Amino acid sequence: MKAAVVPAVSSSWQIKDVPQPQPGPNQVLVKMHASGICYTDVHLTLGHFPGPPFPRILGHEPVGEIVALAPDVTTRKVGDRVGSAWIQSTCGRCEWCQRGRRTFCPYMKGTGIEAQGGHAEYMLMNTDATYLIPDKVSYEQAAPIFCAGYTVYSGLRWADPQPHERVAVLGIGGLGHLAVQYAKAAGFETIAISHSPDKDKLIRELGADEIVRDGKSLAAAGGADIILSTSNSTKSMNDSIQGLRPDGRLVAMGADAEPLAVSLTDLIMKRIRIIGSQQNGPEYLYEALDFVAEGKVKTIVETYPLAEAAKAYERVADGKARFRAVLTM
Ligand SMILES: [Zn+2]
Ligand SMILES: [Zn+2]
User: Cα(first)–Cα(last) distance of the chain, in Å?
Assistant: First the structure.
């Protein structure tokens, strides 16, 4: 089968012929239809995160159709449309697995990290790592939900928004364009914090009630109870905090290497909270997909055939993709 292979750290992606995998116990073989490229793929390619040795096949937004199953698989069938998120498998035995918080399992195998990812014609998925894609959601629409949509919707839910609260989204890109739509679809007054006026028209179309440029102008516009930070810039995150209302929560979902500095005045006198968030549990993925099935959230994607994976990767690495690049097979 053909796959987009990253041969070594910091090298460009190459299309290669690799052996087609066969399902082992508890696994299904998925004929890939679409695979989203996440900015995390850039970090992985550049070796920013620890992981197994290269070559690797990345891709943690994989969706497709089951074409074969191991004999012990009973909950999935050939023809099912499925996708898989960040967690491919965990040990099932540690404290965190037993608590149902698999994301903290020290033995977790990540999709496109320890396990082969989706940027290929076929991929093995562990059965319990597959999620059924609603019939009304196309593969291209579904792929970015398995990381970007899942992440931002988890962040919104983790902040525990209350009726009448205002939600701001910092950074309108692959994650942020979905965060604006989810906050709006969930019924909240939604403010976009965007530095680039060239995106304003589009941001309005996504449903934002207001657009501000920074934390100061967010404060001037009445502030936000929740800031969903999808930005990779710690500087922007720090700046946005001045737009948080008392008892406000900043939900951090992206990061660069800089530490986040929070003043004790903000922390104590305004009683703000800084919340770290990732993909916080399958119920949020289910809801995130359901919003798309209901037509309330749409992913805006650029699609590229697998053969053009290297080009698509460059678009993402340069921050030029509007808003998510998806490989199609
Ligand atoms: Zn991702
Ligand atoms: Zn475990």
Answer: 11
